[in-house]
Amino acid sequence: MNKTPYTFILVILLVAAAYFIGVQTTKIQYLEKNTKNTGTALGISNLTPSKSAKLNVAQNIGIDKNKFKSCLESGKYAKQVTSDLEDGKKVGVNGTPATFVNGQMVSGAMPYNTFKEIIDRELKNPNQPLTTGERINVDPGTLPALGKSDAPVTVIEFADFQCPFCERFYKDAEKGIIENYVKSGKVKFVFRNYAFLGPESNIAAEGAYCANEQGKFWEYHNFLFDNQGPENSGTFSKENLE
């Protein structure tokens, strides 16, 4: 009897089995990695968040600790943070970062060069018709902007202090925009809270307004993104921020 066809079929079955095992192993490794690093993976929450080292925000950004603590514990800005979230939803934001360049929406943590291209185009021909989509009138909110009030280009970012993609935007695109356009008076940069990743997002957003009461919003903004931890792990709890 010729066993060649059976041998061929056996080889095919072994290859398929090896592939299936490899795929399942990869999925398990991905799940374990993301559960450990972010506290969430495929919708599964880490139920035992790690205890983070105290950030001592007030001390590190140079504000009165007691005033900051009193403000944060009062919850006086909770409604404002909710309103910020609703403002974002009204203009089509459903994730972060979401950035508007003279009303042109850019979704996600796009690299600096993407924004450079858009900003340069706006500087050359401000508010020209878009090839796709439309310009959206975005409320700049009440937090202080960086740059000249009459700059020809306005960049408005909606972000969550816990969002890792917002951290990426902060370290790349935002710093490039500030260094090359804000400082030269060509761009006004605005930050809007879009706290949607859990309770510590709301706490961090409220803290931004508390820091702003003492004239240190941008110092607070930078400090939190420089010290971001896993989502809802205790990093941005009231106890840690105070």
What does this structure look like?
The chain has one domain (57-240): Glutaredoxin. 51% of the residues lie in helices and 11% in strands. It has nine helices and six strands. It has a four-stranded mixed sheet with strand order 4-3-5-6. Helix 3 crosses helix 7, helix 5 (112-124) runs parallel beside helix 6 (164-182) and helix 7 packs antiparallel against helix 8 (217-226). It is globular and about 50 Å long.
Q: Into which percent range does the helicity of residues fall?
A: 40-55%
Strand order of the largest sheet: 4-3-5-6
What is the end-to-end distance? 81 Å
Strand content: 5-15%
Shape label: globular
Oligomeric assembly: single chain
Tell me the layout of helices and strands.
Elements: H1 4-38, E1 40-41, E2 44-45, H2 57-61, H3 65-74, H4 78-90, E3 98-101, E4 104-107, H5 112-124, E5 153-159, H6 164-182, E6 187-193, H7 199-213, H8 217-226, H9 238-241
Helix pairs in contact: 3-7, 4-7, 5-6, 7-8
